[in-house]
Design brief:
The structure holds two protein chains of two kinds. By secondary structure, chain A is an alpha+beta fold. Chain A is built from ten helices and twelve strands. Chain B is of the alpha+beta class. Classes of the chains: A alpha+beta, B alpha+beta.
């Protein structure tokens, strides 16, 4: 055995170069060459403290398109580099999905809300991260841009598998959508529910990955991979929401 | 009137200077390579690549300890500055690199190849005490194992994997049990948490063969000096330790730590070296003691506590650190502040191949209070007695002796209990699934006989400078000293400055331990100020005058050498609301109280009381350092669950009681370690009150409570009422 234990520290980050493009296409091209995109940096810098080496970074914060919140044809678009605080304070989001706005107002802590972005949270794909789970309950998709200029869309829970530049998230049919979440048992799991004609339920176990489930399965304690106790919690919370 | 602690402004806006901020000309940065294995023999270390890296000044391994007395530890010196032949926990230091910056040092560490031969881990107290257990040390480290040591109150290394044992008897417990109407035996488990001080442990060292200078945030500058002098075999006056503000400790910065290693690296690098360990490393380096405990208690037919046998096995981790002292202090206070006819206390500090355990706020009495105050409640409920009345009946009165020839009880234990019980409305009948619980934490203060000195100088401009080596770790020692000097001399507090300390010219202080900052160090300041005042009265025109004084804690006068300076009880009352579908518990009320003697800064006292209570609350409900087969599972800030503002109780308050009986200025006592003690037991007792379920293991997570409620499902309808009736 030769593995060594090297704890993290910000002082151990090696020097790196940063580009700050303003155009989306330029950013997409840089990403394709292996430059690592960084928005708020809360996760990336943490990984660098753990010893991950990146000699070239790309700041996304000066690309206006990534910082926009818009609505069009009943869909809500949230830019990849929009911070949690921007969502919570945006008038459009508050009008269309007030409970989503309220959710982002209490995500993480004030510093995380101020620095952290939706795209960063989703692409970091860390266990227990909530943004993908919340957006998935609303059936959201993630839009990427390839270096050849082609845009494509994937379901938000698969976004982290993509290697291209994340541009924005799309929440469809906001007209009749309702969003609920219950974080009261966050040491076990958090429950996200999106309601239109039908209900979409996402269970996010603490330090786990978002699990799309049906409400019937939750009520019957039939969620594979969830402990007996977590199933009990999921059922209780869902029953109370109904 | 409420006035903020003196230096809070500078701390809030980032102007306060800490040791971590120190930059020195030509300073190199050191990083440490740590063992990834809980237990292994080091066959070979290949540093050749690291040594050749550009920007690397020195690579240090166990080989560099040749010719030095390279071990440290309290009572039992078993911890090498850097591993020589064997590693005993995940995080044991194997190599150090000093380089032009941390990134270079870090990169060099990654090229070091260590050839380990794995040994079986000894991950738990049970595995360490098993008949076929692997020995963490092949033979005793002490020169005189198995011998009772009066200075620390117990026996060094009595048997395999037990590094220290405390044992004390008062009268004959067996006879007392035989005469008791009821005898109850219950087992408890205590989790371990990490200190989580925000400022890392940091040392800047400058060393030649003859002289070693350290800038350190260790809270024991004189103890560090003594250790460094011994290790490097140079006179103490050739070691200078300088200390400024310290950014939190909770025990994590007490006693010798990585300071001598920083000096060793600086010597080899031939330049100043800064060794600043990260938060992750701090979590691997030292923890609180986990414990397995068994209490056997005899009670008379009319509800009098008669006798108690208190047994504990502390998980001390791989090395001794302060475990011997923790075991002694825990054993001493284990039975709780009640009138006992017979006692037997036995505490074993057990070695495991996990993070070494050492000083932690409460110093063993958080463990003992959890078990003791849980069982007191359980006994009352079994006898259909109100736990509140049961405690009131048995608590020691003011002036009573806890143990023979001990410091008499110096505050009103019953009044403290009444205060918190009243504050939460203890007598109101509970709503369904809502319950209230009480607990009394009990500890001595002052530890093992300490000395504090202070010097105070009046400058020509009329201002004064206080020289003391008592360390301000955020608890507000400097603020208290300013107020004491100001009050004694009759000058405004703004005209008093507290100097940073240096062992070269600051008077001696045994270190900020066991709540002595106010009780001893500030008393020395007060006496020095009084002496200065006398001189001023005689020589009002003298340009510069000095006062000096020492405050010595009385020598130990009970068998095992506690030499208790004053009593530091704490009271807690909790109300919980339980979600019976999930076991999720809400603390709707938490009121804590402690005796400040005299509150020199009321707001700072309240801050200490609330802070201690929050730390206790986290440990009660969710906070825990987890190990699997000796591997830490969550020793990273990201994965370690700490209490946040969202976890605070609905009603949360602190009552600062003032008995005026403390040994400090104006009758003051320390309060920092008090309120962490009774929180977990108060909550466990409230849970029992609410749903009739008893939890005896920490943390009391929702899942654990749910499982316990499910197991007791048939009985949940039969909840014993406070007045003794059993509700059908």
């Amino acid at each position: 055995m030769t593995a060594n234990l090297l704890p993290a520290s910000r002082h151990r980050i090696m020097p790196f170069a940063v580009s700050r493009p303003e155009a989306l296409a330029e950013a997409a091209a840089l990403v394709a060459t292996g430059v690592v995109p960084m928005a708020g940096g809360t996760d990336l810098v943490d990984r660098m403290k753990q010893g991950q080496r990146h000699s070239r970074l790309l700041s996304l914060l000066s690309i206006a398109e990534l910082r926009k919140i818009t609505s069009e044809d009943g869909a809500l678009y949230l830019g990849a580099a929009v911070t949690h605080r921007m969502v919570s304070q945006d008038r459009l989001v508050r009008e269309i999905l007030p409970s989503l706005s309220a959710f982002f107002a209490v995500l993480g802590n004030p510093r995380i809300r101020d620095r952290g972005t939706l795209g960063g949270n989703v692409m970091a794909n860390e266990p227990g991260y909530e943004v993908a789970a919340a957006l998935a309950a609303l059936d959201a998709s993630a839009e990427f841009l390839r270096p050849d200029g082609v845009h494509y869309v994937v379901p938000v829970l698969h976004a982290a598998e993509s290697k291209d530049l994340l541009v924005r998230f799309r929440i469809p049919d906001t007209g009749e959508a309702k969003f609920y979440w219950d974080r009261s048992h966050r040491d076990t799991l958090t429950l996200f529910v999106g309601q239109r004609r039908s209900m979409r339920v996402i269970v996010l176990p603490t330090a786990g990955r978002a699990m799309p489930v049906t409400s019937d399965d939750v009520l019957r304690h039939q969620i594979p991979g969830l402990s007996r106790y977590a199933s009990q919690v999921a059922e209780t919370l869902l029953r109370r929401l109904q | 009137m409420v006035t903020p602690v003196d230096d809070s402004g500078a701390k809030a806006n980032g102007l306060a200077r800490y040791t971590a901020d120190l930059v020195m000309e030509g300073m190199a940065h050191a990083c440490l390579l740590r063992s990834p294995h809980p237990h292994a023999i080091i066959r070979k270390i290949d540093c050749s690549k690291a040594e050749r890296q550009p920007g690397v000044f020195a690579v240090v391994t166990g080989v560099d300890l040749a010719g030095l007395d390279g071990v440290y530890g309290e009572v039992i010196r078993d911890q090498p500055l850097i591993a020589t032949d064997r590693v005993r926990y995940v995080g044991d230091i194997v190599a150090a690199v000093a380089a032009v910056d941390e990134a270079t040092a870090f990169a060099a560490l990654q090229t070091i190849h260590v050839d380990y031969e794995l040994l079986p881990a000894v991950p738990t107290v049970e595995s360490a005490l098993a008949p076929d257990a692997i020995a963490v040390f092949d033979k005793p480290v002490s020169p005189n194992p198995g011998v009772y040591d009066a200075a620390c109150g117990g026996i060094r290394e009595p048997r395999r994997n037990v590094l220290f044992e405390f044992d004390y008897r008062k009268d004959d417990v067996e006879r007392a049990f035989a005469a008791s109407a009821h005898v109850f035996t219950d087992d408890f488990r205590f989790s371990r948490i990490t200190h989580y001080h925000l400022e890392p442990l940091v040392t800047v060292a400058r060393a030649t063969d003859a002289v070693i200078e350290l800038w350190s945030n260790n809270q024991d500058p004189f103890e560090v000096r003594e250790n460094v002098a011994r290790i490097f075999k140079i006179p103490e006056e050739n070691v200078i330790v300088r200390t400024g503000l310290v950014g939190g400790g909770f025990g994590g910065k007490s006693h010798c730590k990585t300071e001598p290693l920083a000096a060793l690296v600086a010597r080899k690098a031939q330049r100043p070296v800064r060794l600043c360990i990260s938060m992750e490393e701090a979590m691997l380096s030292l923890s609180q003691h986990g414990a397995v405990m068994r209490l056997t208690t005899g009670v008379s037919s009319d509800g009098r506590l008669l006798a108690r046998r208190c047994e504990a096995w502390l998980d001390s981790g791989a090395y001794a650190d302060a475990s011997a002292f923790v075991a002694t202090q825990m054993g001493y206070c284990f039975p709780g502040p009640y009138r006992w006819e017979a006692l037997h206390m036995n505490v074993a500090a057990v070695r495991t191949t996990t993070t070494p355990a050492g000083s932690f706020r409460g110093f063993g009495r958080v463990q003992s209070t959890w078990a003791s105050e849980s069982q007191i409640d359980m006994i009352a409920r079994r006898l259909n007695l109100d736990p509140y009345a049961f405690r009131r009946r048995n608590l020691l009165g003011v002036g009573a002796e806890y143990l023979p020839d001990d410091t008499p009880i110096d505050c009103d234990l019953i009044a403290g209990l009444d205060a918190v019980a009243t504050a939460v409305g203890y007598d109101f009948s509970a709503r369904p699934n809502r319950g209230k619980g009480l607990a009394v934490g009990f500890k001595s203060a002052g530890g093992h006989s300490r000395l504090a000195e202070a010097r105070i100088r009046r400058e020509p401009d009329g201002s004064v400078v206080v020289h003391t080596a008592a360390c301000d770790m955020g608890q507000g020692t400097r603020d208290v000293m300013k107020r004491v000097a100001s009050e004694t001399l009759g000058i405004p507090a703004e005209r008093v400055r507290i100097a940073d300390s240096s062992t070269a010219d600051t008077p001696f202080d045994a270190g900020s331990h066991a709540c002595t900052g106010v009780a001893l160090s500030a008393t020395a300041v007060q006496k020095a100020a009084q002496m200065l005042k006398t001189q001023l009265d005689q020589l009002p025109k003298a340009p510069q005058l000095e006062g000096f004084a020492a405050q010595q804690q009385k020598q130990a006068d009970i068998r095992f050498g506690s030499g208790n300076l004053y009593w530091q009880p704490a009271w807690a009352a909790a109300e919980v609301d339980i979600d019976i579908d999930t076991g999720k518990l809400k603390v709707t009320q938490l009121v804590v109280a402690a005796d400040a003697g005299h509150a020199i800064n009321l707001q700072a006292c309240q801050g200490q009381l609330l802070g201690g209570a929050i730390q206790g609350l986290g440990q009660a409900l969710f906070e825990q350092l987890c190990f699997e087969e000796g591997q830490p599972r969550n020793a990273q800030p990201r994965r370690y669950r700490l209490p946040t503002a969202l976890d605070l109780p609905g009603l949360f308050s602190a009552l600062v009681l003032e008995s005026k009986s403390g040994p400090g200025p104006f009758g003051a006592k320390g309060v920092g370690e008090a309120t962490i003690m009774p929180i977990a037991a108060a909550i466990a007792n409230a849970i029992d009150d609410a749903v009739g379920v008893r939890l005896k293991t920490l943390p009391m997570s929702a899942e654990n409570l749910f499982d316990a409620m499910s197991a007791q499902h048939a009985d949940t309808q039969r909840k014993p009422h406070r007045d003794g009736n059993v509700m059908a």
